[in-house]
Amino acid sequence: MLKSAIFAVLLPAAVFGLAVRPCPNNAPVPLEVRVIDCYEEPCVIPIGGMVDMDLDFIPNRDSSTVDAALNIFLGNFRVPYDLPEDQRNACNFFAGRGCPVSQGEQINYHLSTPATAPFADVTVDLELQLTGDDGQPLFCFRSSARITAA
After folding, report:
1. So what's the pLDDT on residue 90?
2. What is its subcellular localisation (predicted)?
3. Domain residue limits at 123
């Protein structure tokens, strides 16, 4: 009985994703974003830790390649940051498949990248965008994160 009660309490956190905001470019947002150990904004991310998320999206067009970009904003100022080179090809991080992607199919994307920042104890916006081979975003979203010292 206790196991059932614990499962019932933890189930909503496992099923429901993080509420995210659209990007200023009005690109589609993913169907659902799940961030490990974060259920509401701002997510707390220690420097040296990992940004670890899964998300589901449906492309609105076909694409033979998909590029990933993670940007950090402090207000309207973009903080210089680039995903590690091997993570920029999003096709390598689609669950059970790669590219090409087809319009209308549901795809799961997993991002796990080190949290590096030149500052701590601030709240920033993280912006994740996947871009198709035509240079247009397949999706884009923003969420808040509190960067803390390790």
Report:
1. 97
2. Secreted
3. 21-66+75-148
Q: Which two tokens stand for residue 31?
A: 């169907």
Structurally, how many domains does the chain consist of? Answer: 1
Q: How far apart are CA 123 and CA 70, in angstroms?
A: 16
Extended strands (E) in the chain: 21-22, 32-35, 43-46, 50-57, 66-74, 77-79, 107-114, 122-132, 137-148
Considering the domain boundaries, does residue 123 fall inside one? yes
Encoded tokens for 136? 């247009």
Residues of the chain with pLDDT under 50: 1-16
Q: Note the pTM of the prediction, 2 decimals.
A: 0.85
CATH code for position 25: 2.60.40.770
